Amino acid sequence: MTFGAGHHLHLIDGSAYIFRAYHALPPLTRKSDGLPVGAVAGFCNILWNELSRASNGKAATHLAVVFDHSSLTFRNTLYPDYKANRPELPEDLRPQFPLTREATRAFNVACLETEGFEADDIIATLAREAVKAGGSCTIISSDKDLMQLVGPGIDMFDPMKTKAIGPDEVMEKFGVPPNRVIDVQSLAGDSVDNVPGAPGIGLKTAALLINEYGDLDTLLARAGEIKQPKRREALLDNADKIRLSRDLVTLKDDTPLDVTLSDLEIHLPEAEKVMDFLTKMEFRTLTKRVADKLGIAPPSMPETSQLQVTAREEETQSNDEPRLPFDHAAYECIRDMAALARWIAHIRDIGHVAVDTETTSLDEMRADLVGISLCVDAGKAAYIPLGHTTGGGDLFGATALAEGQLDLTATIAALKPILEDPAILKIGQNMKYDWKIFARHGVRITPFDDTMLMSYAMHAGIHNHGMDELSDRYLGHQPIPIKTLLGSGKSQITFDKVAIDDAVRYAAEDADVTLRLWQHLKPQLHRARVTTVYETLERPLVPVLADMEMAGIQVDRDTLNRMSNAFAQKLVQLEEEIHDIAGEKFNVGSPKQLGEILFDRLQIPGGEKGKTGAYGTGADILEDITTLDDHPTGAQLAARILDWRQIAKLKSTYTDALQLAINPDTGRVHTSYSIAGANTGRLASTDPNLQNIPVRTEEGRRIREAFVAPPGRVLVSLDYSQIELRILAHIADIPELRRAFEDGIDIHALTASEMFNVPLDQMTSDIRRKAKAINFGVIYGISGFGLARNLRIPRAEAQGFIDRYFERFPGIKTYMSDTVKFAQANGHVQTLFGRKINTPEINAKGPGAGFAKRAAINAPIQGTAADVIRRAMIRMPKAIAHLDARMLLQVHDELLFEVAEDQAATLIPIAKEVMEQASAPAVSLQVHLAVEAGQGRNWAEAH
């Protein structure tokens, strides 16, 4: 059916609606396993109501559900802080997002998302297309950001309030008609999305101003006429921020889509598929309604959800077996050494104990230990208060220790023997944190299990692995929220201010939950066939990373300060050059002013204005301008603007911010590594992120000069050379690449020679550059469009390069095809070392399908590389124990060491051998892993 006159499109804002459903509807969990599904249930009812009305000849003829692809879009390029202050998703909401996409497909409804754009942009695009085609559109949402679209042929409907939203409702909300909503939002900003707007101007004032002056541009042009000083200054001082805000709030109605309006025609769901999904979700009432409509008998509801069995292969206890309830009143508070001694004796008898710490900070290097919780069996938990305080301890109002607590030193001394006893297993959730807290008090915990890492080994890619989510999902229990004890915002307190009785219930419950999770997850490792992954790649990495994080790396504050000052001077110099080239002064940081100079005054062709009337001046556009030989002034100006932007980012993000990250007690920066962050096994560095320091530019590389070795010591860097390409050559079985690596041939030159029939001795830098882009692009499943942008060539030419690449190296094409098929059949892919990377979206259709396939193709390669360096890190401490050396950082494929100056020459061959032999004996690679080494007084010299 071709979409046209008489047709009506309904667009469900899935990303916004699931939040509304979550907050508006009562909580609902699946009976068989406690999975939260309340928002999914509300979402499914909305979908079915839409389909039911359509089948009766009412409402929509076409329907789609639209989702945000990810949190990062083109708006983050315009303004990196866009939506930066959004809170983390509630633990019980996070697992429901992928289920809403699965529900959409089960109901046979189009499920749309586009990388780099928000759901609102897709909705804007489809709504405009519907009206242009002669039809109409209703947006199923109450999101205020979508109200700018309301107009002839387009309205909105709030399904929670069963309320239509038209021009009158928009006028009531914003004080202006829909075509002026953007102007009001640009002035008022949005604290939720972190849109700056003009300080001190709210919605009412913004509406008053727009109604008085007609539109935003007129208002800004006449801002000097405004009599109220605060309003006048707010507009004059923040004009660029207001225009930026307009770019942020304006919905992009030309979002690229791979569907047409006709593709969105409504069809009833396929009975088998929708029944299977609803049965798995255990939505009994809705299942019966849908079955009746489809004219089939509703299937019986299983007691155990088959989805959980097949997806996670972990059910060990019968759901008929009653769970022991959580009884907070039964938890013990250990207030004397005699009671502690009884617990220690019991721990020795049992042979295991779940342990957790309560502290004053998430920063383990600065946190004070407040208390310790213990649990030996489900329901049998206790809390040892050590550092709780009370206000008004002296005449000056200082705090004092609360009564009824044990001495910290004596308690640690009593616990140290069992915490270090090799015959007693210690159980934790995110044990690296507690390991570091105890290590700072002279205790090195061993042996231990970590429930977070057990979950990660089995369920990477399916859900997160925080304790609250695991408890809710596997124990059917929602732990006490920490906010109920600490509060939030300015009134938030630290844990030492929590009353001891409240702390007992919260902290002992944490240990109780951890023990029960261990009892549930531990037996599942072998069923999921990831015991080896957990035992050799996850658990032994904890103390290695903890030692690295505690060691930190020395940073020279003076060097950073000098760089920051130099960058400031460079920015001033660049601004003067830019003004000279442009022939006038303007705000270098203003994209609008820059666009006017480039495309209006200098008459550079190709300028495109957005809906706000401002030209686009993103980095890709400026880079294109730098190549224009017939516009030398514009090319020179664009090049200098790019230089200015780069220096400004380096200054704010690195030389300024890193100074604040230096620990005042150690003079070093202590990053924290997340083991269970990335699905592929790659580590993530946070607080601060030391894996993201730029190295491609001279200025970026100079930042590494601030990372230094103390007197008498040097930094040593060892870096895997092209490890992912080497792993690709092995996995995809490509003889030409394997031989090139073994013979030490330039792999990019070889690829260029193979593809373009150019002898190696006649290779040009341009041909080699293209081959390099293809080599690395193929690993990430790059498309013709993506390669075209990277190389700045026509898409057809780029696609031709990729096609030729696969012709020359057919093993890669076979590998990609086989990997996708394996993922579709099994729901996961694997590294060479057995790590499972789950791919729940692999069978999706629509815009997300391509991304899911590319991720599946890349995961075994990136994951194997991550496993290799993990194995090297785990073996490294023993290999270099006899040296005065320690490992400080892991930056993707690089390890950084600090070593006594006279032992660097000894360290390098030892560490190099460990890294090059890291895959053995588990995996015998057909390609040698090469490692490059360097040393110096600072990181820049060593790398």
From TrEMBL:
Pfam families per UniProt: 5_3_exonuc (PF01367), 5_3_exonuc_N (PF02739), DNA_pol_A (PF00476), DNA_pol_A_exo1 (PF01612)
SUPFAM superfamilies (alphabetical): 5' to 3' exonuclease, C-terminal subdomain, DNA/RNA polymerases, PIN domain-like, Ribonuclease H-like
Domain DNA-directed DNA polymerase family A palm: 700-903
Top-tier EC class: transferase
5'-3' exonuclease domain residues: 7-267
Signal peptide span: none
Ranges where the 3'-5' exonuclease domain occurs: 331-526
Keyword hit for Hydrolase: yes
Keywords in alphabetical order: DNA damage, DNA repair, DNA replication, DNA-binding, DNA-directed DNA polymerase, Exonuclease, Hydrolase, Nuclease, Nucleotidyltransferase, Transferase
Protein EC: 2.7.7.7
Residue stretches of biased makeup (Basic and acidic residues): 311-323
Keyword set includes Kinase: no
Subunit (UniProt): Single-chain monomer with multiple functions.
Protein name: DNA polymerase I
Primary gene name: polA
